[in-house]
Amino acid sequence: MPLIRVEKLYKQYEIAGGQATPVLHGVDLTIEAGEFVAIMGPSGSGKSTFMNILGCLDTPTSGNYFLDGENVAGLSNDELAALRNRLIGFVFQGFNLLKRVTALDNVALPLLYAGLSKSARREQARDILKQTGLENFTLSLPNQLSGGQQQRVAIARALVNRPPLILADEPTGNLDTQTSREIMDIFTRLNREQGITIILVTHEPDIAHYAGRLVRFVDGRVAHDGDVAGHAEHG
Amino acid sequence: MKLLAIPAEALRAMSLNGLRTVLTMLGMIIGVAAVVLMLAIGQGAQNTVNQSIASMGSNLFIVLSGASTSGGLRMGSGSVPTLTFADAQALAQIPSVKFVAPVYPGTAQLAYGANNWSTGVSGTTPEFLEVRNWPLDSGHPFEDSDVRGATRVVLLGQTVAQNLFGDEDPTGKTLRIKNLPFMVIGLLAPKGQSLDGRDQDDIAIIPVTTAQRKLFGNQFPGTVRYISVQAKSAEVMEEAEREMIQVLRQRHRLAESAENDFMVRNLTAVAQTAAGSAQAMSFMLGAIASISLLVGGIGIMNIMLVSVTERTREIGIRMAIGARRRDILLQFLLEALMICVAGGLAGVLLGVGGAWAVASFADMAVEVSLSAILLSFAFAAATGVFFGFYPAQRAARLKPVEALRYE
Ligand SMILES: Nc1ncnc2c1ncn2[C@@H]1O[C@H](COP(=O)(O)OP(=O)(O)O)[C@@H](O)[C@H]1O
Ligand SMILES: [Mg+2]
């Protein structure tokens, strides 16, 4: 059973004035557990829209989405929240950490909604921060950290519930080359050593080369699905 | 443990935004304190008026010398006293009238030992104490025989007794009024302030005849300044008024077309007016204070709306990592509730403290009522919860992706 299967996925946004713009035109895609997939494509081709649907943050206009064998369309809001909490870790381009909350408490937050006790939350968050090399920054606030450090806090937060899937929409978009490389090394390690499935949007060929599979979107359709080598080069 | 996790989260969010929290609370504090204080002052004023009314006696008329027109009072410069002791006796015969007390007042210097005190001395009859519903603290009232004999006996009010005798009981002692010796035969019970703010206990009461003949002299023998009348009941007030006018017109031999040379005033009606205006003032104070509470509530709504809007992205992040809608709602609701309850409590304390300060420094009667406290507190909590809940619900209804996209 694949971790992710989407069939004939359509999405259009209702625009004020009545006319709707189609963004996804029947996407079919299957991703097995343990894969590392890079998604590329021109700006506005629907990559983020697709990722939001995969992350159960948004719903498709039509089509089916099976996550871990379950049809997501039939789930209530609360069930979706629980599903996100259990199965998915998010890494965003803009980090999306809570301001004025320490690194430790940011990382521990998913465990709050999982229902763990405060001491268990802190303990697990500390462990994960150590894994991402931030043991000395547990009490720092986001604005006291560099971009790379903030993204590592965000990755730690995505990992703290030990989800099988990580969705990262342009995680290195705000980072310099050296820092991007460090972040990608973390993703690679998580994929190889812990078998975590990683789906990552990027428009940098260098970044795409960390992945084992490339999916290219053009105008809301999958234009390429397969090898990275030789296909990542036009942004 | 999850039950406590969300409140803890709400508390943390509040402390992270200390200034905003305090500002929101301030609106609540001021609003609640204003309501508690204003209602306390209003209630106090009403109590004072009600006490004065109760001390005045019930179903009272006062009959004054002088003409009245339908438009009001006309005072001739050399207005001749037209009421006599005999008039008072005639009024006492009217069936709807219970007690009648003619009064001949003046001002005199009282002296006892080294102390002296200038006060109003009222010459009257024993019925005066009945009309005014005025018991004695010690001693006994004077009698009709004292009126017939114009004896030199006196009843003292508390203020006069205090100033002349200190804490001693004056009963049985002899003092001097305008240098004439008078025997103190009783001490009046305390009555407090009258409706117009006079000290009713600053008085000495003597037989009317003594006042007329021995103390003040009487230019027109037998006349009195005014007559206090008590009707048998509230129901017969109108009847009593009509009959008194009729009797007095007959006795004064007024022609059909002539105006009254006296005036009958219904003091109970005056009292009701005073009570009504005290109530109106109390109501107005309450209304003004309610406006400040409402403004406080609107302040809370504003800050809550701004806070939720500003934190829409935070809400998106929380939803992305697994918060359910009710987790979000509960957190914001608790934030609003804690702010309002804390602000409301502080407001009640401030209001009660303010009422106490007004009572002790401005020497005003205030009464903090439990219902005023509960009312303003409940309103504060309701405002906060409603205005906190509404924006939070709006945010929690968003799709996570919409909340996350919010800039
Ligand atoms: N909330 C929205 N409302 C309307 N149109 C949207 C919304 N989000 C995205 N779009 C449109 O959908 C298209 C695809 O957007 P997106 O998925 O963000 O593209 P990408 O991530 O590939 O750059 C764009 O044309 C964008 O303008
Ligand atoms: Mg995008």
Characterize the structure shown.
The complex is a heterodimer of chains A (235) and B (407). Chain A has helices spanning 47-54, 77-87, 103-114, 118-131, 147-159, 177-194, 205-208, and strands spanning 4-14, 20-31, 36-40, 62-67, 70-71, 88-91, 165-169, 197-201, 213-218, 221-226. Chain A has 235 residues and is α/β, with parallel strands linked by helices. Chain A has a single domain (4-226), classed as P-loop containing nucleotide triphosphate hydrolases (Rossmann fold, 3-Layer(aba) Sandwich). In chain B, the strands form 2 sheets. In chain B, strands 4-5-10-7-9-8 form a 6-stranded mixed barrel. In chain B, strands 2-3 form a two-stranded antiparallel ribbon. Chain B is elongated and about 100 Å long. The two termini of chain B are 33 Å apart. At the A-B interface, α2 and α3 of A face α1, α10, α11 and α13 of B. The complex binds adenosine-5'-diphosphate and magnesium ion. Magnesium ion is lined by residues 47-48 of chain A.
What is the element layout, followed by pairings?
The complex is a heterodimer of chains A (235) and B (407).
Chain A: E1 4-14, E2 20-31, E3 36-40, H1 47-54, E4 62-67, E5 70-71, H2 77-87, E6 88-91, H3 103-114, H4 118-131, H5 147-159, E7 165-169, H6 177-194, E8 197-201, H7 205-208, E9 213-218, E10 221-226
Parallel strand pairs in A: 3-8, 3-9, 6-7, 7-8
Antiparallel strand pairs in A: 1-2, 1-4, 4-5, 9-10
Helix pairs in contact in A: 3-4, 3-5, 4-5, 5-6
Chain B: H1 2-16, H2 18-56, E1 60-65, E2 68-69, E3 72-73, H3 85-91, E4 97-112, E5 115-124, H4 127-131, E6 136-139, H5 144-149, E7 153-156, H6 158-165, E8 174-177, E9 180-188, E10 203-207, H7 208-215, E11 226-231, H8 237-251, E12 262-266, H9 267-310, H10 312-320, H11 325-361, H12 370-397, H13 400-405
Parallel strand pairs in B: 5-10, 7-9
Antiparallel strand pairs in B: 1-11, 1-12, 2-3, 4-5, 4-8, 4-11, 6-9, 7-10, 8-9
The complex binds adenosine-5'-diphosphate and magnesium ion (MG).
